[in-house]
Amino acid sequence: MNVQYKEIEGRVVLEPINSFDIEQILECGQCFRFHKIHNYTYTIVAKGRILTITQSKEGIIYYPTSAKEFEKLWIPYFDLNKDYDIIKQYLAKKDIHLHNAIEFAPGIRILNQDPWECLISFIISQNKQIPHIKQVVENISKMFGKYIDTIDGNDYYAFPTVEELSVASEEDIRQCKAGFRAPYIIDACKKVRTKEVNLENLMTSSYDKAKEELLKIKGVGPKIADCVLLFSLGKKEAFPVDVWVKRVMEHFYFNKGSSMKEIQNFAKEYFGDLAGISQQYLFYYARQLRIGK
Which member of 155, 202, 204, 240 lies 3.0 to 4.6 Å from 210 by CB, making a disulfide possible if both were Cys? Predict the structure, then answer.
């Protein structure tokens, strides 16, 4: 997909594209370091930078950034080279349920996040609501990450690297309100820092091998592993199953109670290499409309 954009005074202006809705992208449960300024204006912290995105009918404005930085960082991050129109056309033909989910949120895209930050964020996500997850991630960033800038009275910090977070004790992590997840974070630091789990290699590993490696980390089960694989390691076949996905899959495809394994096997067979993208449409649709609740 060839995106059209121009740089104007420290901003990059992207021409309108069909499959991009900043609200749907950020509010669909795949990331946690964002702040809604007002409708269709968000500030995110990613890649050690602060970026504000404003979307309107005239286009999408990203600032502060340059054309060079936009091409290097933000086109990959927002998956802008992938043609989601073609993906949606293909998936919408699968069945009426997926068709309706896509129509409901046609602007969803899968972010390509930093694997380390994504791993820790989803370890934190266990049994927590999104506002609480966001707060714990912010607490960890403020305590251990590098200061970036102050904007409108708000201090922004980068998410700590594995080396920076490895200096933390379990008690330090608990002070960030991580609770029972603190020892899991400590274990992740140890295994990633020593390359027992080599995150860099997982990008080129097969889905099954990459998942097997992530499951070596304490507190990382199939759902967390699939989230990391989908949202940061390019494994679009990953199909994370949480309570909302389980409900929507049972409601539309099983008409009965089902196990996580049954859902996973069905998704792999039915959605194939686009299972993860299908999951995001169905997840957002189910959560917004309370399907199966």
Answer: 202
292 band by pLDDT with thresholds 50, 70 and 90? confident
Give the pLDDT band (50/70/90) at residue 83. very high
pTM for the structure as a whole: 0.96
**Second CATH level (architecture) for the domain 115-232:** Orthogonal Bundle (1.10)
CATH of span 5-81: 3.30.310.260
Domain boundaries, the chain: 5-81, 91-111+237-293, 115-232
CATH assignment, 91-111+237-293: 1.10.1670.10
Q: What is the DSSP string of 197-242?
A: S-HHHHTTS-HHHHHHHHTTSTT--HHHHHHHHHHHS--TT-----
pLDDT tens digits along 274-291? 999 999 999 999 999 998
